[in-house]
Amino acid sequence: MQKAALAVGVVFLLVGVLGFIPGITSGSLGLAGHESEALLLGLFQVSVLHNIVHLLFGVAGILMARSHPQAKNFLLYGGVVYLILWIYGLLIGHDTAANFVPVNNADNWLHLVLGIGMIAMSLLLSRGTTRAASTRP
């Protein structure tokens, strides 16, 4: 569980850094909002705010990976947050002020995969630990 949370945290930290690197991120990087023309890897719409969110999420994952309960919470509730972001991205107009992060269709589907994946990790990786803990005297 802790290794999974650490790995997810490191990936988010890396994505946050990559979002600021010209060449890996193409186009004009805006502060926030749908006006940002920057595309990470030519696919995912990002902004300064979006990159900072990735950095903070990565730091949270790394810090929460220190203990099993915190690692599980990071994966479970982080996954829930990403599912909410997926729904949000589907409901808003991508060319409106409501798209303040910003997100595009590629971001939306990535958020779905991340949400399901993180929740699945939190549930599947904790299956043996609760049984093992309950059998101890």
Question: What are the salient characteristics of this protein?
Answer:
mainly alpha; 137 residues; 3-stranded antiparallel beta sheet; disordered C terminus
Structural class: mainly alpha
Question: What is the strand content?
Answer: under 5%
Looking across the biggest beta sheet, what order are the strands in?
1-2-3
Tally of DSSP helical segments = 5
Q: Could you walk me through the main structural features you see in this protein, from its secondary elements to its overall organization?
A:
This protein has 137 residues and is mostly helical. It has one domain (2-128). Helix content is 64%, strand content 4%. It has helices at 2-18, 48-64, 68-91, 105-124, 127-135; strands at 25-26, 39-40, 44-45. The protein has a three-stranded antiparallel sheet with strand order 1-2-3. It starts with a helix and ends with a helix. Residues 131-137 have low confidence and may be disordered.
